[in-house]
Design goal:
Strand content: 25-35%
Mean pLDDT: 96
Number of helices: 14
Helix content: 25-40%
Oligomer: single chain
Shape: globular
Structural class: alpha+beta
Largest sheet: 5 strands, parallel
Distance between the termini: 40 Å
Number of strands: 22
Low-confidence stretches: none
């Protein structure tokens, strides 16, 4: 079969890598792809947001299955358009993807159906939002309600910081139209974890647990990013906690979406805050996480194509998903200046050396090919992923791979997976 993967980041490289292992797949296309994906797929210069262009490309190549990576095209209705054209596509519909694209909608949904989350307020007026912050006090969380590439969240330690965040989002429009509406939330305490599950709209099956690192610097310092690394499994997600999350969060949310006329098929991702053994929802995403997908795909033993086809056919309850017992750790190497402004076109060396290491996979995130060389083409450049018998072994492999690779100004966190080690894994 022929498979088209939409997107050009580390998540899409990991998906292409996993799809390439299926004996059923004869050809992989990617749009737009990157320098790493190009080693596995034929890349097309079609942007992930260009839905008519993607539809035309899929038809012209007689693609049998399209897998959508990023949230942008999902929220713009790419699944609806492909389905109208009779093309099999993996991901939620536009109405279902609103669970990520509209934080205000999602907070109201959770409140209506009793899904545990933080207290909140929703605002379109800056003065009213400022008044709410002053009355509530700090610490407090300020979020752009729309899509902001994982960066539209400010955890304000003081009222002044929260007011400044409102100014940035609502007045300066740092995140554009995503900040037309803001959600202001109670600041939950605890430990964050990512919880992803496959669902066909009826059956919900959890993936292996994972945990990402949002802050740019070691010890969770500095501004939020799209994610500086991730590991799986996450010891904080115990069997008891997994059951609570499934019973109180994931299954009720999928059922709630169906009741609201928004049948959810695809990957439902809950960002959780865990405190005293119970979890509350920070946010939902409507797709695979990035960089969580990299360690998750490294551990997935089942054929991803079989899984996706079972979801599309409403047969997920019939599938047994198998995971490798190993641990996996992904370390993101970023461009100088990220998550702020950064240069592109910086040459990367050492990729082959790193990829030749046993148990090391180098997933490209922001890369391109220029004059026969691989160069930087984004803020998050690479996700160097190690697979090992323990988290400690996976950490060693990942960082050995990182040390093999060089590009000017590269920076990365040195403590990815450290929390798992503290918890005795």
């Amino acid at each position: 079969m022929k498979v088209l993967i939409i997107g050009g980041g580390g998540r899409e490289h990991a998906l292409a890598w996993k799809v390439s292992q299926s004996p059923r797949v004869k050809k992989i296309y990617a749009a737009p792809g990157n320098a790493g994906i190009a080693q596995l797929a034929e890349c097309a210069p079609v942007k992930a947001e260009d839905i008519p262009g993607l539809l035309s490309f899929a038809k012209s190549r007689a693609v049998d299955l399209t897998i959508v990576g990023p949230e942008g095209p999902l929220s713009a209705g790419i699944v609806d358009e492909f389905q109208k054209a009779g093309l099999p596509v993996f991901g939620p519909s536009r109405k279902a993807a609103e669970i990520e694209a509209n934080k205000a909608f999602t907070k109201d949904l959770m409140k209506k159906y009793g899904i545990p989350s933080a207290d909140y307020g929703v605002f379109t007026d800056k003065a009213a939002a400022e008044d709410y912050v002053r009355r509530t006090g700090a610490p407090i969380v300020v979020k752009a309600a729309g899509l902001a590439a994982g960066k539209g969240v400010v955890v304000a330690e003081t009222v002044d910081e929260a007011i400044a965040a409102l100014d940035m989002i609502m007045a300066k429009k740092t995140f554009g139209a995503a900040g037309d509406v803001v959600v202001i939330e109670e600041c939950l305490k605890g430990e964050e974890a990512s919880f992803m599950a496959f669902t066909d709209g009826k059956t919900v099956v959890p993936m292996a647990s994972s945990q990402d690192h949002k802050r740019v610097f070691d010890a969770d310092k500095g501004p939020n990013t799209g994610g500086m690394g991730a590991y799986s499994p996450a010891p904080v997600v115990t069997k008891k906690l997994e059951k609570q999350v499934m019973d109180k969060v994931m299954i009720p949310t999928v059922r709630a979406m169906e009741k609201e006329g928004r049948l959810f098929k695809g990957v439902l991702y809950a960002g959780l805050m865990i405190h005293d053994g119970t979890a509350k929802v920070l946010e939902f995403n409507a797709r695979f996480g990035d960089p969580e997908t990299q360690p998750i795909m490294a551990r997935l033993e089942s054929d991803l194509i079989d899984l996706i086809e079972a979801i599309l056919g409403g047969r997920l309850s019939k599938i047994d998903i198998r995971w490798k017992p190993d641990s996996a750790v992904c370390v993101v190497m970023a461009s100088a200046g990220y998550p702020g402004s950064y240069e592109k076109g910086v040459e990367i060396t050492g990729l082959e050396k790193a990829a030749a290491r046993p148990g090391v996979m180098v997933f490209h995130s922001g890369t391109a090919q220029r004059n026969g060389k691989v160069v930087t083409d984004g803020g998050r450049v690479l996700g160097v992923t190690g697979l090992g018998a323990s988290v400690a072994a996976a950490i060693d492999r990942a960082y050995a791979g990182v040390r093999d690779i060089y590009f000017e100004g590269a920076h990365y966190r040195h403590d990815i997976g450290a929390r798992a080690l503290e918890e005795g894994n």
